[in-house]
Amino acid sequence: MELLSGSVTDQAPADPAATDDMLAGQPIGYWSGLAHEAVTRHLRDVMARVDVTQPQYWVLNRVNGGPTAPSREEVSAQLTPLAGGEREIPRVIDQLLHRGWLRLDAQQNLHLTDAGEAARARLRGLVTEVRAEVHKGISDEEYVAALKVLRTMIANVGGF
Fold first, then answer.
1. All residues at 6 or more sequence positions from 94 whose CB lies less than 8 Å from its CB, including other chains
2. pLDDT tens digits for 65-107?
3. Fewer Cβ atoms within 10 A, N terminus or C terminus of the chain?
4. Which residues pair with 112 in a beta bridge?
5. Whole-number Å distance between alpha carbons of 99 and 72
6. Residues 133-160: tens digit of each pLDDT
7. Residue 17 and residue 34: Cα distance in Å, rounded?
């Protein structure tokens, strides 16, 4: 691995108590991992209070979000990379069919029922509230800058 010329900041050990002047040397993997875990845990805890899971919300949005009704296989293929294993999304689809939030048409494509659309709309409001809580004290400009930095880091290591 060839280092770029110029000043390179030393990588320091992960330190949750690092002061602002020490943050430049902190490992991104540690901090992005903590952020992912904390935000995901909080969102899932809030959703559990209304008896819904994050993957159920993903499926409701995916079924609602396309120009045509998707099949089980299409929804599973799109969402499995986000889920905890290849069986998670098919299970969620079965749960939502059982709950009456999804229905299958004659071609075996998925559609939201009226109850499913009502649940999706309620959950969207809930997720919007959680987003506001997570983003408290962070401007849209700061948020965009943080995501641009993360996107660049991902691209730097061949993630895109």
1. none
2. 778 999 999 999 999 999 988 999 999 999 999 999 999 999 9
3. N
4. 102
5. 16
6. 999 999 999 999 999 999 999 999 988 6
7. 13
- Counting every residue written for the chain, the total comes to 160
In DSSP terms, 110 is beta-bridged to 104
As a whole number of angstroms, the distance between CA 34 and CA 16 comes to: 10
Token match 């540690």: residue?
30
Considering only CA atoms, which of 123, 128, 110 is closest in space to residue 51? 123
* Nearest-angstrom CA–CA distance, 112 and 134: 29
In degrees rounded to 5, what are phi and psi of residue 158? 75, 25
Q: Under a CB-based contact definition with an 8 Å cutoff, are residues 128 and 76 in contact?
A: no
Measured CA distances, 55 to 6, 34, 48, 150 (Å): 45, 20, 12, 24
Residue with tokens 């120009």: 67
**Rounded distance, CA 63 to CA 117, Å?**
10
